[in-house]
Amino acid sequence: MAPRRAAGSGAQQLDDADAGEWREVAPPRRPALSPAEELDDALARCYRHLGEREHSAAELRRRLERARLGGEAIDAAIATVTQQGHLDDARYARLLAEDRRNIDGWGVERIRARLQAAGIERELIDSVLAGHDAPSELVAAGALLRRRCRGRLRDDRERQRAFAILIRAGYDSSVAYDAIRSVGGEAWGDGPPEP
Predict the structure, then answer these.
(1) Are 126 and 93 in contact (CB under 8 A)?
(2) What is d(CA 104, CA 135) in angstroms, rounded to the nearest whole number?
(3) Which of 36, 37, 158, 190 is the most exposed place for a label (fewest CB within 10 A)?
(4) 11-26 pLDDT, tens per residue?
(5) pTM for the whole structure
C-alpha cells in the first residue's frame, strides 16, 4: 500500500513508477444518499459541531461543505438549527467577544478580525464591539500586562516586549502606550523612568 499524506483539496500519493514523486489523488467519493438521508446527515453533523462549541452560520456551512454535502441539504440543515435556536450569529459574536476579552485579553481589533473571519456581518460586529470604548480598552490592556509581565518594566527591552504583547492581542498603539505607562508606573512605584 502506497503512503499517503494530506494536502490541499485532496490527498497526495507516492507514485510507484517515479520513486519519491507525489501526485494528486482525488478524495474518495461519498456514497450516493437520498435527499432525506443527506439532510439527516447534515443535521447530525450540525448537532455534533454545535454540541462541541458555538459556531457562526458561515463556519458551520464551511464544515458541511467540506463534508461534501449538497447545497440544498446544507441550506435546510442550517435553517432548521437556526429556527430551533441552536445557531445564532448574534449570540456567537457576543460570546466570542466576551470570552476572548476576559480569558485571553484580546483587544477590539483582534476580536473584530476573528469575527470577520467567522463570517459575521459588519453591522453585527459593530454592535457587539460598541461597548468597548477607549477606557475599557485601557483597563483590559492593563490587566493583560499585569498577567503577562509579572515583573517590573525596568528597561526599554521589557517595555518593547510589553508593547508587542499588546499589539499582537489587537490593541491600538496609543492604548498600548498608555497601558504600559499606567502599569509601568505601578510596577516602578515612583513612576516610569524619564525618556
Answers:
(1) no
(2) 18
(3) 190
(4) 555 555 555 666 666 5
(5) 0.70
